[in-house]
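Note to self: user wants both folds in one dump. Writing first protein now.
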Amino acid sequence: MSLVSLQNLSVRHGGNTVLSNVSFSITSGEIVTVVGPNGSGKSTLLRSVIGAQTPSQGQVIRQGGLRIGYVPQKLHIDPTLPMTVRRFLSLPDRVSNQHAKDALAQAGAGQLAQRQMSGLSGGQFQRVLLARALLCNPHLLILDEATQGLDQPGSAAFYHQIETVRQSLGCAVLMVSHELHVVMAASDRVICLNGHICCEGEPEHVASAPEYRALFGSGTQGALALYRHEHNHSHDHSCGHDHAIDTDVTLPPNEKVTPK
């Protein structure tokens, strides 16, 4: 059963159409990544899923009682404000020490509880934001450019933690990122957005799709293959598809990119 289903979603801001006839669903346990150029409507899409954006047309159907955890692109905290990580997790609603400890552990930030927020590195700060999003034990975890400003190893480590969270909680993950070589390697399904859905499918298929290459260039396919190899990312798929990008990745013969 779908956690969230978008049906012919369109969003207009003033006289501009930001999203047009976007339809897709997210089911439990899958990691879905939305990629697209600046101005393609990615953040508007996330806001629509959360319920912060009212569609001009179409609808967003959410499973009853759906809990959503959200990791923002960035969050500014006054560096002169003394605030520990533990205190931050209790704003605005107080949580128990055990609850905070568990969330920090799930986010890979178990040793940071008594650290000052102002003294955290970029990667540590994002893990604390992830812990905050996990406090509600989400069915769906949403990340909006959550690794912006991190270097490539930091981004890779963060997305590896997301995979660990997905496995431990069984939640779905919907994320937006410009870091194509990292984020696509961490995804089960990729949606290429440019005001509408250009193509969607498994990462290797999308990376070889003409619609994707037209937006990002053919070099991103090679970057994905290189990252797959270095990351040693494995999938339990059957062999024999012509579009496999390197020998460590095999694809099911019946999977296709869906052009829109």
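First done. Writing the second protein, which came from a different request thread.
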Amino acid sequence: MAGHSKWANIKHRKGRQDAKRGKLFGKLAKAIEVAAREGGGNVDFNPTLATAVDKAKSASMPNDNIERAIKRGTGEVEGAVYEDFFYEGYGPAGVALYVHVLTDNRNRAASDVRAAFTRHNGNLGEPGSVGYLFEQKGLIVANGDEDEVMLAALEAGAEDVRDGGSESFEVVTAASDMRDVREALKSAGLTVESADVTQLPTNSVPVEESDAKKLLRLIDALDDLDDVQEVFANYDIDDSVMEAVLADA
């Protein structure tokens, strides 16, 4: 799974991300703009836009912000033109990092990403150096009875259901099936905590506490950059280690 096999560790700084709501809204707006520019502004006919809007709404982004972002994407109002690409590299303990960038200034993005890797014990790699270690998938986190989650998810076309800890379950789907599976879970009366199209690693690297601190600092530094949308990593940090690291942060 992305980062650790448990959602709490994928979003290891959720509280801090929530505290950066303005920056988060900016990143969500970019994703909406790009999706609308590439596939049109109607969510009923543009699955990528629908997913971006769903993600923005789940983060409590105001509807006015969402609609302005769609209009910028469709050209109804003036907006920047963003490039969409990935940087690839390695962090402490040999963890692969796959960094999704949306930027209107490639030179600035390259400089900032390179500086973050250099300052935090990472190594920026060549294109293709780690991308093959990740697969685009839908990832849904749901709460409820295990049998009910399993039945509803698999009947709706999910690929896998895994124990996510704390009475939650991770449902893995094809990217194109994520929204349908999410709606099937909701229709079955189950609580959906989150649903997103993400990049899941095909293997994981165990990380001890000493390297975990350095690794999470690097991930946070990258994630804090305005041009970086998301940082995907194939680390596996034990829950007890993660709790100790976050307690010291």
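Dump finished. Worth passing along: Strands lie at 83-90, 96-103, 123-124, 134-143, 160-165, 168-174, 191-201, 205-206, 228-233, 235-236.
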